[in-house]
């Protein structure tokens, strides 16, 4: 698995509402909802050079009333982080990209419901944990979620929903997103149940490998994923101007 391949899988697994190709970079826009869907993904060294590419990024995001963001990973052009720093851009938290074979993770999971679209119950729980904004932002998020074929899992405990997750199906891979557990129900194995059920659904849909992203400083989550067979292959962070 190469870093550039993983960048593109994740790009397609969390699709922006608008994508503009600019000299080898993908500029992504979705009304400011989520960083991935509102950041520039630099795929190559632009013909006009990195400084000119950054000028184009600033112009494009300003035109849409959005703060300029650039995703920098192991596949980004050499020296990009140094150039961003010299121009006054600030780095965000590091996220780690991890991959696993589906066979290591997939298992039947009791009490987990699977569907091809996110129910309102699914959306309400996910947004209560990870959401930023109101109804308008949630509607944009729903459009992002349903922008590629996916499986949605909802785990129950005593009848009520306690955990959700999404698996994006992209080119023989499954990308795990939106793993969220209700406050008060954490560290009880619900997230693992959801992830195993999603992996099984991905296997049944033809996926052979999985990927996910987790913040580097989230040691408990990383340990849980690595117990399931995930291994880190790359890292990335978002840089913001100012």
UniProtKB/TrEMBL annotation:
Domain spans labelled N-acetyltransferase: 112-242
InterPro entries: Acyl_CoA_acyltransferase (IPR016181), GNAT_dom (IPR000182), Rv0428c-like_C (IPR056935)
GO molecular function: acyltransferase activity, transferring groups other than amino-acyl groups
Gene3D superfamilies the UniProt entry points to: 3.40.630.30
UniProt xrefs under CDD domains: NAT_SF (cd04301)
The entry's keywords: Transferase
A Pfam cross-reference name: Rv0428c_C
Record flagged with keyword Cell membrane: no
Superkingdom of source: Bacteria
Protein name (database record): Acetyltransferase (GNAT) family protein
Source species: Motilibacter rhizosphaerae
């Amino acid at each position: 698995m190469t870093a550039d391949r993983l960048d593109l899988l994740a790009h397609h697994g969390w699709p922006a509402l608008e994508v503009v190709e600019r000299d080898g970079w993908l500029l992504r826009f979705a009304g400011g909802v989520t960083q991935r869907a509102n950041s520039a993904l630099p795929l190559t060294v632009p013909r006009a050079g990195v400084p000119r590419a950054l000028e184009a990024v600033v112009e494009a995001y300003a035109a849409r009333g959005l703060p300029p963001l650039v995703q920098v990973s192991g596949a980004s052009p050499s020296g990009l982080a140094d150039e961003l720093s010299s121009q006054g851009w600030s780095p965000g938290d590091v996220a780690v990209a991890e991959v696993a074979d589906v066979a290591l993770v997939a298992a039947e999971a009791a009490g987990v419901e699977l569907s091809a679209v996110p129910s309102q119950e699914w959306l309400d729980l996910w947004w209560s944990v990870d959401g930023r904004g109101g109804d308008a932002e949630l509607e944009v998020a729903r459009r992002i979620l349903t922008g590629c074929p996916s499986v949605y899992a909802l785990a129950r405990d005593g009848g009520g929903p306690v955990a959700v997750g999404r698996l994006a199906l992209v080119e023989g891979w499954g990308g795990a997103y939106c793993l969220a557990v209700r406050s008060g129900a954490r560290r009880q194995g619900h997230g693992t149940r959801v992830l195993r059920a999603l992996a099984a659904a991905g296997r049944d849909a033809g996926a052979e490998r999985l990927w996910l992203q987790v913040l580097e400083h989230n040691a408990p989550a990383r340990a849980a994923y690595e117990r399931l067979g995930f291994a880190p292959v790359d890292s990335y962070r978002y840089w913001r101007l100012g």
